[in-house]
Design brief:
alpha+beta, 10 strands, 759 residues, 39 helices, Jelly Rolls
């Protein structure tokens, strides 16, 4: 059963009534407020009638009677006409004008015309068409324009002569509506009327011609569009006509004509059309004319050729790689990678890739990598083996870029090549193609290499191959064994690989080298551990500090551990306390000992407190140790409690994870409060907003107090800093609470804190 739209969607005007009785007398008093029961009752009756012609006929007469009644409100008439439109739309085409009263009279009435259109527009048949035509001749202004719209929707062909006359109406809005209607009526007669209007015409007529053009015979359509393209008053219509013309015209003549011209907008349309154009011999025609066009047009056409991938374009595009304009050359180089590959193309690209023009060399290499053809891979293998050195280097690089594993035996042979550039390129390619099983081969190559560039590339290749080995624990064993027994000079050369491989096994190997009797090697290995990118080097550095006989190495190791703990402000643990104790036992530097004991401020474990208390009698660390012990006792009282002006995200402030944050709009009155549970010494507060660079407090004040209700005087103030706002506090600062306030509003960015660090 069909269901009218108003059964499933809210009526646009929410038409409702005052009474709960669902009878027509009540419906006739409908207004725009009150109860909807009368309308709902009518809709239920329509739904129940479905498509039954007898039931619908009864309802139709009742609806028409309601419209004829003098006391029916406007709101009720609107409901009746909308429902009547549904009923008449299902009626057979045997309607009569007399049977539809009072709709014909309403149709010409300025107040009621829109209501009548609601009822009549869906109704089929010539009788209703005639009502619209009659009304058209009896109306003016807005009412007539609305009727023209209905005539277009109903496709009333008989209205074409009347609409043709209205094209010349003095009212431009009426004339425009008539033109639109003629464009929408699909009968050939409407097209003939529009064709007869000479250009330049009004904008509405030109738009209607564009509407009817695809429905015309090919010859007529092309004639209309050609006339519009040449003479339309509005350039928008000229361009639209060109676009349609290029879609409908299967020849390439118009395209070539446009590309030969100087109209940039028209050229863009022509270029767009080329991607899907079915024109025969299109690419060969474009290739023949390519060199005659300006640089912009050549570049754009070359891009089209690349997208279409037609081999016919190859010769012209190859020629364009030598064009005087860099834009054309770059377009040609990129296009060659998408055209069918040939030996000629490969040769041209390899020569440009080997040249000194950086951008063009890079583009040529990229296209050479994409180049696809039956003989390309074989030619690249052959080129890598023989020829000029610069070209051989390009082809060797291509073995890796194209993933040609069949070139592996050839690359291994190049280890003994007389040309250092060839050897360097070959070992780089091995780094991309070789498997972990070839690790020893590349290691031997790195050891034997005498050329600096070759050595560097061999080491990079060695790291790449090692990292591809899924056996993390054992993948560097061969390298470590060689380094730990090698002469100092060789170990120094191989040392950079350890940091690049990373992890605990590599750090342990570097630690062994740091204990070498050779000062240069020991220093280099220690410095490598200091620069280590993860925490696995900390325990190794502690061991080095304990075991080395070289004071300078010990000092570097201690400093490195302190720096590592500074980089990593994660939660402290007992192992960290143990590391500090071990380093204090071997460190002689007063500066280092003070830095080490200060690290314990992050601790809350009993060994840390015992160590701090033990150190209070030390002449160097004594005063600092007293302060540290007080901080540890405060830490042992529990995690700091946090409050803020905005509590959302407040837990992120001191959770040890800089990947999340607390963030608030910077309006000038935001604050954060830290409760340490006990009064404690404070030296520095760091607000870390790394990754949110500019989201610092615009201007801040910091308070330290034992009574949060009485903040006291400002202890520190200043302007925020990018990434980290570091706030140094006066010596002797102590308190249970720290309050940080932002004082100045900022519109562009919020105030964010990823982590608060307390020292």
């Amino acid at each position: 059963m069909l269901r009218p739209a108003f059964f499933t969607a809210s009526f646009a005007f929410t038409l409702i009534v005052h009474s709960s009785i669902a009878a027509e007398p009540t419906l006739s008093q409908l207004d725009y407020s009150g109860s909807p029961q009368a309308v709902e009752a009518l809709d239920r009756e329509l739904y129940a009638a479905g498509t039954d012609p007898v039931k619908l006929a009864v309802i139709e007469q009742r609806l028409l009677a309601g419209l004829r009644a003098r006391d029916t409100t406007y709101a009720a008439r609107q409901v009746l006409c909308q429902r009547l439109g549904w009923v008449l739309g299902l009626a057979p085409e045997k309607l009569t004008a007399s049977g539809l009263k009072p709709l014909p009279a309403m149709l010409v009435d300025e107040r009621d015309s829109d209501l009548a259109r609601l009822a009549l527009e869906p109704a089929p048949g010539a009788t209703v068409d005639t009502l619209f035509l009659t009304a058209l001749s009896q109306t003016t202004a807005r009412t007539r324009i609305a009727l023209i719209d209905s005539i277009a929707r109903r496709q009333i062909v008989a209205a074409v002569p009347a609409l043709a006359k209205l094209l010349g109406d003095n009212d431009p809005t009426t004339a425009a509506a008539a033109a639109r209607a003629l464009g929408l009526i699909t009968d050939h007669s409407s097209a003939l009327v529009l064709q007869a209007v000479p250009e330049p015409s009004s904008a509405s007529v030109a738009a209607a011609k564009l509407e009817i053009a695809p429905r015309l015979a090919a010859g007529s359509a092309l004639a209309v569009l050609a006339d519009l393209r040449a003479r339309a008053a509005d350039p928008v219509h000229r361009i639209a006509a060109l676009r349609l013309l290029l879609q409908l015209d299967p020849s390439v003549a118009t395209t070539l004509e446009v590309l030969d011209g100087n109209d940039t907008a028209a050229k863009r349309v022509a270029l767009e059309s080329l991607y899907a154009s079915p024109a025969p011999q299109l690419i060969s025609s474009l290739a023949a004319k390519l060199s005659t066009w300006d640089a912009f047009t050549q570049s754009a056409v070359i891009a089209v050729m690349a997208r279409r991938g037609d081999a016919v374009a190859t010769s012209a595009v190859l020629k364009a790689t030598a064009h005087e304009d860099a834009m054309v050359r770059m377009a040609a180089l990129e296009a060659l990678g998408f055209l069918p590959g040939t030996i000629e193309t490969m040769t041209a690209l390899s020569k440009i890739a080997a040249g000194n023009a950086v951008a063009e060399s890079k583009s040529a290499k990229a296209s050479l990598t994409r180049l696809n053809g039956p003989a390309v891979n074989a030619a690249i293998l052959s080129g890598a083996e023989r020829g000029e050195t610069v070209l051989r280097v390009v082809f060797i690089e291509q073995l890796a870029l194209r993933g040609l594993n069949e070139g592996l035996p050839l690359l291994l042979q190049f280890r003994t090549d007389s040309d250092a550039a060839v050897r360097a390129a070959a070992v780089s390619a091995l780094g991309e193609l070789a498997s972990p099983a070839d690790n020893k081969i590349v290691l031997d190559w790195a050891i034997a290499a005498t050329d600096a560039n070759e050595q560097a590339r061999a080491l990079r290749a060695l790291v790449s191959i090692t990292l591809r080995n899924p056996d993390i624990a054992g993948r560097g064993a061969t390298l470590y064994a060689v380094m730990e027994t090698a002469p100092a000079e060789l170990a120094l050369r191989l040392l950079p690989t350890l940091g690049r491989i990373g992890g605990a096994p590599s750090a342990a190997s570097a630690g062994k080298l740091a204990l070498s009797a050779d000062l240069k090697l020991a220093e280099a290995a220690t410095n490598a551990l200091v620069r280590w990118t993860d925490d696995t080097a900390i325990s190794v550095l502690v061991s080095v500090a304990e075991r080395t006989t070289l004071p300078i190495v010990r000092a570097s190791a201690v400093t490195g551990v302190i720096a590592a703990f500074e980089r990593n402000r994660a939660f402290w643990n007992v192992d960290a306390t143990t590391f500090v104790a071990r380093l204090l036992a071997v460190s002689a530097s007063a500066e280092s000992r003070l830095a080490l004991i200060t690290l314990l401020k992050r601790a809350a474990d009993a060994p840390a407190l015992a160590l701090a208390e033990k150190s209070q009698g030390d002449p160097v660390m004594g005063a600092a140790a007293v302060e540290v012990a007080a901080v540890i006792r405060a830490n042992q009282a529990g995690s700091a409690k946090l409050r803020a002006s905005t509590m959302a995200g407040v837990r992120n402030l001191m959770d040890g994870n800089t990947g999340n944050r607390w963030s608030v709009p910077a309006e000038g009155d935001e604050w954060v409060e830290i409760d340490f549970n006990l009064s404690r010494p404070l030296r520095r507060i760091t607000l870390d907003q790394t990754g949110r660079g500019a989201e610092f407090p615009e201007s801040y004040e910091l308070y330290v107090t034992d009574d949060v209700a009485v903040p006291g005087k400002v202890v520190a103030s200043g302007v925020g800093q990018t990434n980290k706002t570091v706030i140094d506090l006066p010596v002797g600062t102590r308190g249970r609470y720290v309050i940080i306030k932002n004082l100045v509003a900022r519109k562009d960015t919020p105030w964010s804190i990823c982590e608060i660090f307390v020292d």
